[in-house]
Design a protein that fits this description.
293 residues, Rossmann fold, single chain, two-stranded antiparallel sheet, alpha/beta
């Protein structure tokens, strides 16, 4: 099982679209068993895409499922930790743990405090490990677990990074969007360093392989005669100077917009632009498999 976090500091960059289409392509075209964890507690985009009937319940905050939020709540109430969650099966063959708006309330500030520094630090470790503990206790049938995150630096994001073997950062190819990539890379490094320190000073039995940043994914790119426009090409070069960037990218266009309206993968939408974007997502997924093996 490989766990990959789709993370970004900025919203509106195509993160959820990338996570959804890579998940579907892994299952449909590469015969992988895939689970998506929707941790985007504001939009719940993948939850709405896979289970349209849940949209209103998500907006009202009345989903009946045992979600990630209830796992954090166990720590806040000092009750016994139960890693079990509800898994839903979608019509496109991808399973999911649905989003929960209450994840916006997750913070280490809610942990019970003591006058004992050691116990306080153990609580911080346990908070970081919540999503990992859920994944470890999942059915062993999944080849990939993809986590769609909310676009901000938070305690939920740190838990996602800790749980992930790899992280990728979908990004719109403009300066305003791509400047967040170094921040994401830095946060991954911070989590890795914090865990190494915790292991050395607090819990020698802590098992952790540092999370790897597998690269930025270019989304909503504009082309001229089949290649990225000059501004997009310049942004790709700038990103490569700061870290790993996927060679494959996805252009903007009506195919993805129409697919979103119909709550279908772009692979199931007709039209020249949809066919082009389908090919691009298939290329992106093939590269994903090499970067997140």
């Amino acid at each position: 099982m490989r766990v990959v976090g789709f993370i970004s500091e900025k919203g509106g960059v195509g993160k959820t679209t990338a996570c959804y289409h890579v998940a579907v392509a892994l299952h449909r075209y590469h015969q992988k068993s895939v689970l998506v964890i929707d941790a985007d507690y504001q939009r719940g985009g993948i939850t709405g895409r896979l289970f349209p009937d849940l949209i209103e319940q998500f907006r009202r905050g009345t989903l009946p499922d045992k979600t990630l939020f209830s796992k954090f709540q166990h720590l806040y109430s000092a009750s016994n930790f139960d890693p079990s969650v509800n898994i839903r099966h979608s019509s496109v063959g991808v399973d999911a743990i649905v989003a929960d708006t209450r994840l916006s309330n997750v913070t280490t500030n809610k942990l019970p405090s003591t006058n004992n520094i050691f116990e306080n630090n153990i609580s911080l470790i346990n908070h970081l490990k919540v999503i990992k503990e859920v994944i470890v206790n999942l059915p062993k049938k999944y080849d990939y677990v993809l986590i769609d995150s909310h676009p901000e630096i938070s305690d939920v994001l740190r838990s996602i990074i800790y749980a992930s073997d790899y992280c990728v950062s979908p990004v719109k190819l403009d300066l305003q969007s791509s400047v967040g990539v170094p921040t994401i890379v830095s946060e991954i490094g911070t989590v890795n360093k914090d865990v190494a320190l915790m292991k050395a000073t607090i819990d020698n039995n802590l098992i952790y392989n540092p999370t790897i940043f597998s690269g930025a994914m270019g989304m909503m790119a504009r082309e001229y005669r089949g290649t990225p426009k000059q501004t997009e090409a310049d942004e790709m070069r700038r990103l490569r100077s700061t870290g790993v960037v996927f060679s494959a990218y996805v252009t903007e266009g009506d195919g993805i917009r129409k697919a979103a309206q119909e709550r279908l993968p772009v692979y199931d939408i007709s039209g020249t632009n949809a066919e082009k974007q389908s090919r691009q997502f298939l290329q992106l997924t093939s590269e994903f498999l090499t970067k997140c093996p």
